[in-house]
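Posting for a labmate who doesn't have an account.
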Amino acid sequence: MRQTALTLLTLSMFLGIGACVLPTTPLPPLPTNTPPQPTYTSTPTIIWFPPTETPTPLAVFSLPPTPTTEALPPHGEVLFQDRFEEATLWDTGKSYMGSIAFGKNELTIVVTRAEGYVYSLRQGTTLSDFYAEITAQPTICRGGDEYGILFRVSPSLEFLRFGLSCDGTARVDRFYEGSITAPQPPTLYGAVPPGAPSTSRIAIWANGREIRFYSNHQHLFSIREAYLLTGGFGVFVRAQSSSMVTVNFSDLIVYRLGD
């Protein structure tokens, strides 16, 4: 099994994620002497969840919005289907933060430390315009623990990230030119199952600047993206405060866009 670098950092979460999901006060700046996470090979250091100078507004804990009844977007032929049978296609390995390993037709990511973050990128995969679906099954997950998809990942590890949390929220983040923003802040959705065990069919439709996001065949929201238009694909798991988070990913299908 190929073992590649895991960029697993214990830095403070950005946009108000730290000791709790959505605090009302900003996080202090990161200490300048924070040691980098040990890796198996030399890789660029990246702050996946840097702090922000302004607090993220609290999510409103009322009834979740009714999912849009819009049908899944049209798509064309299958570009590729990954049943997670070839371990060499994904980053795998272990560190003090957790592990990435193959099971039977699934990729399992385990985070073993509070505020830990583990991700795996699919090798040789560059996507710009596409429609992709993947199944995520959290087995140990609670509160603000988060899991989802990294896409349009650049060689310098700039990226877009679509995440579902075990408190029933979904969000999209962008890391670009050293700054991180949230085109879609955490919002409660009825199509995002809270807690674990649970199953979500996560989907992204990307056509140039327009990107639509889905959970369990329901449209959640759309964004306009002006910066990251092509790049790699991967999955991630983040522990907000739990001592352990475990999520299985399976049945990835990527389609060309339809006419």
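Reply:
Got it, the structure tokens are right above this. Confidence is low (pLDDT under 50) at residues 1-64.
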